[in-house]
Amino acid sequence: MTAEDPHLLSTPELSVVVPVFNERDNVAPLVGEIVAALRGKLPFEIVYVDDQSKDDTLAVLTGLMAGTPELRVVQHVKQSGQSTAVRNGVKAARGAWIATLDGDGQNDPADIPKLLEARETADSAIKLFAGWRVNRKDTGSKRWASKIANAIRSRLLRDETPDTGCGIKLFERALFLDLPYFDHMHRYLPALVKRAGWQSVSVPVNHRERSTGVSKYNNLGRAWVGLADLRGVGWLIKRSKVTATREVARP
C-alpha cells in the first residue's frame, strides 16, 4: 500500500466477485460502475473470474488493472461454468463478505450499498441478502420461465425466496465456502443457507436490459438442468442435520 493509493488495504471489507464469459464490451462499464458505487465508502476489491472467454475479455480486464487498483483477475485454465467461477472467485477473495454480480451488466452495482445497509440492521442469523428483481427487463419468455421455475422451487424447497436467479447477492464468505458445492449451486443459495441453519432475506433491486453481447442460457436448457438440481437439493435438505456445539471448559 502506498500514499498514492489510500483506498487499498491488505484485507478489504468487501470483495465483489464477477464471473464472465465472452463479455468484452460489458467489462469496462461495469468495473467503472462498481468503483463509482463503492470507492470512498469502504475498503473493497473486485475479483473478476474469466471462464476461458473466446473473445478478448481477458485482455480488456488486464488493461483495466493498471488504472483500477482494486481490480484482480482470475482465469480458469478450462471452461467450467458460472457456479465454478463464482466459487473460485470467492475462494480467491480476501474480504469477509462477498457481493456477486452477473457480468452482463444487467445487475446494477449501485444496489450493493443497499444490500450493505440491509445487513447493518439485520439479525445476526441472516447471512445472505439476495437481490429481488421486482421489475425484470428480460424477454417475456424468460420472465415467464423464471416465474414458473421460482414457483416450483419455492414449493418444493420451501426457501421462502421469490427470485433465486438474481445475480446480485451479498453473503458471508465463510458460510458460502462451507456449503455443498455442485454445478448451478448459485441458483439455490437461499435453500442451501437455510439447510446450514442460517437465514436469508430478499431485497428489491434494479434490473437492466442487456446492452451488448448475448445470453449464455436458454429456457429449455435451464429447465432440464433445473429438474435434476431440484431433486438433488431436495435430497440434501432431507438428509441434512444441523447440530449446535459447545466447547467444554477445562476443569
From TrEMBL:
Residues 15-176 form the Glycosyltransferase 2-like domain. The keyword Cell inner membrane does not apply. It comes from the Bacteria. GO terms for molecular function: undecaprenyl-phosphate 4-deoxy-4-formamido-L-arabinose transferase activity. GO terms for biological process: lipopolysaccharide biosynthetic process. GO terms for cellular component: plasma membrane. InterPro entries: Glyco_trans_2-like, Glycosyltransferase_2, Nucleotide-diphossugar_trans. The keyword Membrane applies. Keywords: Cell membrane, Glycosyltransferase, Lipopolysaccharide biosynthesis, Membrane, Transferase, Transmembrane, Transmembrane helix. This is Dolichol-phosphate mannosyltransferase. It comes from Arenimonas oryziterrae DSM 21050 = YC6267.
